[in-house]
Amino acid sequence: MTCGIWREVRLEGWSAPKITEFYIRQNQVSAEIADLTAEVEAFVPAAWTGRLKIVAGEQIWEKTVELTTGVQVIKLDMHISKPELWWCRGLGEPSLYTFKAELLEQDYSVSEKQVKTGLRTIRLIRERDTAGASFYFELNGVPVFAKGANHIPNDSFIPEVTYERYRHEIATAAASHMNMLRVWGGGFYEEDIFYELCDEYGLLVWQDFMFACSMYPGTRPFYPMLLRKRSIISGACAIILALPYGAGIMRSIQLGLII
User: Fold this and answer.
1) What 3-state DSSP class applies to 62?
2) 72 and 159 co-located in one domain
3) Count of CB atoms situated within 10 Å of the CB of 56
4) What's the pLDDT tens digit per position in 199-254?
5) How many structural domains are present in the chain?
6) Same domain, 128 and 229
7) The domain containing residue 140 runs over which residues?
8) How far is CA 68 from CA 12, 71, 101, 194, 213, in A?
9) What is the signed CA dihedral for 248, 252, 255, 256, rounded to 10 degrees?
10) Do residues 72 and 95 make contact, with C-beta atoms less than 8 angstroms apart?
11) pLDDT confidence of residue 247
12) Is 141 inside any structural domain?
């Protein structure tokens, strides 16, 4: 096992509020309307009053905010009529929306962040039948016949994996008519570009937690920790499940660890 600093390291300084996280929560999505909530996390060095502005194409949402010192989370409800839905490979186009969040002091932008995501509804269908219970996914109300493969780290030395190698992997999976990749739980939480490419090419992602067959607890007090861990990778629209690796899958279903 190799250890050490392997991702980007930098020092940043700022005197105004800074957006650190930006997430689009999809409360309810259909072909008629998308009911969304923008969740913006900001680090605030001193009390501040201004506006939060969210832009997606020609649509704009705004609200006045008063922030106190520390880490603050701002929420803004949004609605999009007749949205272009995201579909996996073989069912339609993987349409994506670009959302931009800005903190404005009068008309001056003090911080901004951008995310790209697809609007969709994904459900795991578990219905009793003569053999026990069903287990399949429904995307925007349409059953999905899953076709795919395992994804493991592309190199023993992770920094050697370039954007071109990621794109080759995802593009060839799509060209092979796959519609889902499972991220193996013995690797690591992949780079953002991996999930972004899956969004772009219409590949669903079955995401394991990185437990690598460890003997983790199977009790409910362990559940809140899993929810915090789940937030690491919950931004991509293609992700359908975040599950413990290996034999823990059925227990995780009982605990409700579905995203």
Assistant:
1) strand
2) no
3) 18
4) 999 999 998 888 777 777 767 777 676 666 555 555 666 676 666 555 444 444 44
5) 2
6) yes
7) 122-255
8) 21, 8, 19, 36, 43
9) 180
10) no
11) 44
12) yes
3-state secondary structure of 172: helix
Residue at 89: amino acid letter? R
Angle value at C-alpha 210, between 202 and 147, nearest 5 degrees? 30
Q: Is 24:79 a contact under the CB 8 Å cutoff?
A: no
Provide CB contacts within 8 A for 128, sequence distance 6+: none
- Are residues 167 and 251 located together in one domain of the fold? yes
pLDDT tens-digit series, residues 167-178: 999 999 999 999
Torsion of CA 194, 171, 142, 117, to 10 degrees: 40
Amino acid at 88: C
C-alpha torsion 168→170→172→177, nearest 10: -170
Q: The domain spanning residue 101 has which CATH number?
A: 2.60.40.10
pTM, to two decimals: 0.87
**β-bridge pairing 239-243 and 204-208:** parallel
Task: Answer for the pair 165, 132: CB distance below 8 angstroms, yes or no.
Answer: no
Q: What is the pLDDT of residues 145-172, one digit of tens each?
A: 999 999 999 998 888 999 999 999 999 9
